[in-house]
Amino acid sequence: MMHTQPPGLYEAALPEDWPQPEALGFGQILGPYLVHAQHCAESGWHAPSVSARAALPVPMASAGLQYGFSVFEGLKAYRDASDRIHLFRPRDHARRLQHSAQRLVMPEPTEELFMTLCQLAVQVHARYVPPHGRGSLYLRPTLYAEEDALGFRPASRHRLAVAVTPCSDPVLRHNRLWAETELIRAAPGGIGAAKTGGNYAAGIAGQQRARQKGYDDVIWLDALTHRELAEAGTMNVFVQIGNEVLTPPLDGTILPGITRDSVLRLLRTEGVPVSEHRISLDELAAAGMAGQLGTAFGVGTAARLTMIDEISDGSTAIRFRDTGLATRLYDKLKQVQEGATHALREWRVAVPVPSSAD
Ligand code: COI
User: Sites of the modification N6-(pyridoxal phosphate)lysine (predicted)?
Assistant: First the structure.
């Protein structure tokens, strides 16, 4: 593997005015380096390298900027109680990036290349990983078309680059969601299952409408009937009806969340009946009338898990109860992600960091 300096020589101590982990928030402070590799149609993937973040501009005429030929991942590195750093489910993120790339006719990075870039990104930013239990380093691997050309066709030059941002441990929030019945995020046959900027571009107006109406976030409905739950602004959703937990199926219109998958596994391990099932607003309203609605929550890498107190489309307000399930899952997920338990340790991949870099 080629890079310009060995990990460990990249970072001096953090600045003296470095915020406490609880004040980092999300995405505000970016790590100084990008770890990246280029792909050319003629020669395939080149060796990884490390650059100062500002030294890697994206050409204005590239299809990455012009046509949205860009797919990305979001994953986290944590410190365990012994101060060792690990990535959470990186291989699952690599496979999802491959699927997103396939959908947008972009070159698929190998799992090994993805792992190498993510490990190196953590190594050169090791000092930015918050202490155990108090946050994480969020990695944003992004594959984009970089060829400086305006023709509408698959690009001949791409780059996979990993940016990082140290962030606070997300707190367990309570949210009220606006069910958007006019705008849509994704339709059958579209790109809803790809993690690509186009889906976030399609979603930002819904988030803004939700906030203007006094809600915390939007919850998207299916494109055909506008009655079935899809996903929230940046999270997959779960609802509890009676003793069963339901989440919308991966029908190609929603993001196949890695946290969604982790939560399904945790629920099944606990013996909670769970199914991937279509959920309509009308079914939720009826369950509410019958006193069968339990808790509801959203899950995602950045947010971990957020309680949903209410979903409203302006005419019907569906209110959920706190049954303790969401808090239990939040705690369990945090433990598994941070390596505070041996359970599911196959989800954690150690990142060796030379002591001089830490
Ligand atoms: C994530 O949770 O990793 C996401 O990609 C959401 C992001 C828009 C903050």
Answer: 195
CA of 111 to the centre of ligand 1 (A): 21
CA distances from 70 to 44, 54, 101, 191, 355 (A): 18, 19, 8, 12, 35
- CA end-to-end span of the chain: 21
Task: Decide: 106 and 143 in contact? Cβ < 8 Å.
Answer: yes
pLDDT in tens, 113-129: 999 999 999 999 999 99
Q: List domains and CATH numbers for the chain.
A: 2-169 (3.30.470.10), 174-338 (3.20.10.10)
300 Cβ inside 6 Å of ligand 1? yes
Does the pLDDT at position 6 exceed 50?
Answer: no
Residue 206 has pLDDT above 90, yes or no: yes
To test ligand 1's pocket by mutation, which of 185, 234, 237 has the most ligand atoms within 8 angstroms of CB?
Answer: 234
CB of 70 within 6 A of ligand 1: the answer is: no
Cβ(234) to ligand 1 under 6 A?
yes
